[in-house]
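Exercise 7.
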Amino acid sequence: MQTTLTTRATDRSPAFVVVTAMTPLVLGLMAYAADETSGLARAVLLALFSSGAAWGLAALVIGFLAPGRRLAIIAGVGGLIGATVVYYALIVFVSRRWQGGWLEDGTPADVMGLWSIARALGFWLVVSVVAGAVFGVLGDAVARASDRVGAAAAGVAWGLAAASGIHDLLVLARWVGWNGQATDIAVSAAMTIALATLVVAVLRRRRGPRGSGGMLALAATVSSGVGTAAWWLVESVRTAV
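Solution. The predicted structure, written as tokens, is:
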């Protein structure tokens, strides 16, 4: 059994290196690209590259491919931190959206704009550390734990990743009217849930022999509820910051 696990870890090592190296660049660049588009194209890019699901699932895949749990955590955290830094570096040095504002007394608001970006960067770096560690551990469990524990880890990963989409759909349900913006949000939310389902299904299949479907369903149900509540808190804190 140990030989089999070692062989599987070795087989995944090249993919682990590539995915870990590319995650910061791809997520950071594409999340920035989503900000520069609008309409349905923006909704799609947000779901695939700039949603909580997309970033959490990236760390999940890194954890799944990692040779061990410790490296899964380090690489998962590092990948999301790197992506966050790339994204905000592009805002500061490329789009420079913090420039051009003016205070009521006529003085430039550039310093306040930079301070706002710095606060957002700090907030999302903290989130990246937590999410990278959690999803890294879950990815490692999906790959190497027993069938029952692996199924539970897959269910938790799905629930936490899909929670951002579920949260957005619940927010939309409270809207009085419906317009193009609501449609884009609904499309993006549905895609994040579909993305979570696809990635977890693929990782479960790559794991090999599997079972405990009931455990997976139970873990997914509970974690999606907890994750959705957590997103309400994240959104509240982010707004305050």
